Amino acid sequence: MKNLILIFYIIIILTKTGNVLSNNAIFNVNNIEINKAFSINREELIKQAFRKSFNQLINRLLLKEDYENISRIDLKTITSLISYYQISSPVEIENKKENIKVNISYDKDKIHDFFYNRNILYADIINSEIIIFPLLKIKNQYYIYNNNYFYENWNKNLADDYLQFSLPGESIENIQKINIYKENIYKIDLNNFFKEFEFTNVAFVTIDLKKNSAEIFLNSRIEGKNIKKKFNIKKDKNKDDDFNNQIILEISDTIKDLVKKENLIDVKTPSFINVELKMKKNDNLVIFNDKLKRIDLVDSFFVQQFNKDYVLIKIKYLGKISKIIKKLKEQNIELKMISGEWQLRII
C-alpha cells in the first residue's frame, strides 16, 4: 500500500516536472505607483504602470549599457512579456489625489526569449547586500566618521532597491587601520578591515573631493573576487542636486554593475545536474517540487529513476552551481557532493 502511495505521488510529479517552473519572483515588479491625476482613463494608467514596471525590471536585471539600449522599447512588446497584473486599492496622498498601485508579473519564458534574441545576459541579485565604507579625503586630510558626509548620509537619498547598502558601525580599531595606511590608502586589506563580514560583498571607497570633481578609488570584494576601480566624477552643472548626492548615486551605480557582472546568467547556456533525493517520507518529492518552484534559476527538473528509498532527478538550471546551492539552502534544501555524487536533503 505504501508503495502504491509513493507511485501515485511520483506520477503526479512526472506530469508536472517537464514544464517550466513558475512563481518566478525575480521577474515580479510590485507596488508600481501611478497618480490618477495624470489620466482618468484606466487603460492609460495601466500602460503607464507597464512602462514603469519594465524600466524597473531591466534596471534591476541588466548592466547599464544593456539597460540603455532597450529602455525605450515599444509598449506592445512590453505588454507581450507580461503574464498577469493586479491593481491594489487606491491610496490617498498628501494633496488628496489618489494613486493606484499595480503588481506585475513577467513571464519567465518570454523574458528569456527576449534576452536570448538580443544576446543579453541578465543578473540575479535580488535582495543582495553590500557592506560599504566611504572614506572622505579633502586636501590630504581624511575624514573617517566625523564630518564625513558620505558615511552619515549614504542611504539618505537612495531608493529602496534590489541591492542594499549597509555601513559598518564606528570602530576605534578601523580608525587605527586607516591611520596605518593613510600614506597609501589604496593598499588597505579588505579582509582585515571587514573581518566581521567574511562572506559578504564589501567595498572600501576613497572619495578625494575637489571643488567641481571627485577622484574615486573603489576597492571591493564581490562574490569572493577582489576588484579595484579608479574613476573620476565631474560635477553636473545642469543639475540642481547637491554634488555629494551625485557622487553617492554614481558610485552606487558603479558598484551595482560590478555585482551584476559577477552574477550574470546566459539563457543560451543552461546547465544540468543529476542529484539523488532520499525518500524518507512519501511526500518528499512533492515538497521538493514546491520548493523548486520558488527558485528562479531552476528551469525544470525531471525524475529519471525512483524506488522506495531514493529518487534520481535531473535539474536544468541557469547560472553557477554555487548560486544554485545557495538558492536551495534558502529553501531548506541541502545539496552536497558525497562520494562523487550530488545528493539532496530536505532540512
Features:
Alpha-Beta Plaits, 6-stranded mixed sheet, 347 residues, 11 helices, alpha+beta
Helical stretch count?
11
* Major sheet attributes: 6 strands, mixed
Q: Count of DSSP E strands?
A: 17
Describe the global form: globular
Q: Report the end-to-end length measured between terminal Cα atoms.
A: 26 Å
Instruction: Classify the oligomer.
Output: single chain
Q: Look at the structure and give the mean pLDDT.
A: 85
How many domains would you count in the coordinates? 3
Radius of gyration: 24 Å
Helix and strand sequence: HEHHHEEEHEEEHEHHEEEHEEHEEHEE
Structural class: alpha+beta
Q: Which spans have pLDDT < 50 for at least 5 consecutive residues? A: 4-8, 10-23
Beta-strand content estimate: 25-35%
Q: Helix content range of the residues, please?
A: 25-40%
Structure, explained:
This protein has 347 residues and is of the alpha+beta class. It has three domains: 2-17 and 268-346, Alpha-Beta Plaits, CATH 3.30.70; 25-122; 128-262. It is 32% helix and 33% strand. It has eleven helices and 17 strands. The protein has helices spanning 2-14, 42-61, 64-70, 75-80, 108-117, 149-153, 172-180, 190-193, 243-261, 284-292, 321-330, and strands at residues 28-35, 82-87, 91-92, 98-106, 122-123, 128-138, 141-143, 163-166, 201-209, 213-222, 225-234, 264-265, 271-278, 298-306, 310-317, 333-338, 341-346. The strands form four sheets. Strands 6, 7, 8, 9, 10 and 11 form a six-stranded mixed sheet that branches. A hairpin with a 3-residue loop joins strand 14 (298-306) and strand 15. The longest helix is centred in the first third of the chain and has 20 residues, at 42-61. It starts with a helix and ends with a strand.
